Structures are given as structure tokens and as C-alpha cells.
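User: For my dataset I need records formatted as: sequence, then C-alpha cells, nothing else. Please produce one.
Assistant:
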Amino acid sequence: MSQKKPLAMITGSSSGLGLELAKQFAQNGYDVAISGSSDRIFEAAETLREYGIEAYPLKADASTYDGVEDFWTFVSKLDRPVDAAVLNVGVGLGGAFVDTDLDDELRLISINITGLVHMTKRVVKHMISHKNGKILIVSSISATQPTPYETVYGPSKAFGFSFAESLRQELLETGITITALLPGATDTNFHSNAGMGSSQIGSSKKNDKTLVAKQGYEALMNNEDHVVGGDAETKQIAIDNRTIPEPVKAARHAKQARLQNEKK
């Protein structure tokens, strides 16, 4: 019976928004192949199986070429067409650029940009051979503005948004659709993991991760170009960012993202 279900693959799905996205697919009858960097990915699989579907977990390091390739090989060995792919792996890094560690920044780039391109290449070539498929690329509302004190993170997400928009146009006649999800600040461990717990953003009210995941899933199913994930206020920020001058947005974000021990 499981072979009759569609298959979705979701990267970065051991917890947080990735797990919530996987739940959306499970609730809608998809089997899921999921990856994460810790043993929590196996606990996530157990949670997802409660929806009556099969979950295939793999622990993999998304910061390395081999880690990305290992997950794609794992999915390929299921010998099933991938009907939907959620490319959600991403990390943040807060702090003044002069103080942050270069190795941390290069790791961020390897995950948020290099890993995204790598996995998308594998997925697109697979879907092209089946002339069918849906891809959700998780970017961020940060893609719509400068992000001082997250000075490498924001541009990495701007790459993801532009990448999704560009690839969507290329694939218009192929049967494959691309949708970008731009979440606002969401109630996950993202900001604390990025070392931004003492920032205004880190301590502010967050969007509900289940809502954001549902919005992303529905946008993907409806073949929307992109969707801003979050409440009405978050969506208005994205609209305003289209016309607010870049220096004004940069100053606003600097105030929100600066850590308490950083000087103005």
C-alpha cells in the first residue's frame, strides 16, 4: 500500500520548521524521506509514522558534499519517484562581521548556498526524467532586506530566493514547479542556535511554526511563485520592503539584530 503513496523528501527535518513541513506532507498522505544532522531525525520519523505513512530517516551532515550526496543516494535507493522536495536546510549566524568566525561563515555558505544548489541539481534532474514534481525552497524574509549583524546569513537567503525565482522560469514547460517560502521570525530554536538569543529579534514574539509550514505547503500545492510565512504583520513587512530604501531597512535590522553586548 505504501508504494501507492506519493513520496516527499524534506531536508533539515529533525525539528523546527522542517519537521512541521514534513508533518504537512504526512497529514496529506505522503510518505517522507527526511534528513537531519543529529539522532533526533530518528525520533522525528517515529512522530511522522503516527500519521499512517512511512518515514525514511537519514542522519547526514548538510555542510559537506558527501553529506548532501549521501541523502540523495539514500532517497534514490528507495527506487520511487520523488513527487515533492522541500529544501529546508539552513543555518544562521548572528554578531558583528568583524567578530564572527570565518569558519562559521564558510560553513553557513556551504549549507545555505552550496548545499542548496547541490541538492537542487540532483532533484531537478530526477524530476525532469519523470516530467513531474514540486520543489519548495525555504528562504527567509531576510531575503528582502539588508541584514547587518547577520551579514552573511541574509545574503545567503537572498541567493536562495533569487535561485528559486530563476529556476522556476527555466522549468515552466517541464511539469516541475518551484515555490519559495520566506518565513518571518518563527517559534523554533533558529535564533538561539545562531547566537542571537539576546537580540531584539531573538526575544521578540514569533510566528507559529505550524502556520508557517501550512502556508508553505499550500503555496507549493497551488503552484504559487512564493509565499511569506507568518502573520499579517510579517506579510506587511515584506510588502513594505519593496519600497523602503535599503539604508533605512539596514538601520532597522541593525537595531533588531544587534546583540546586547555589541556597540552601536
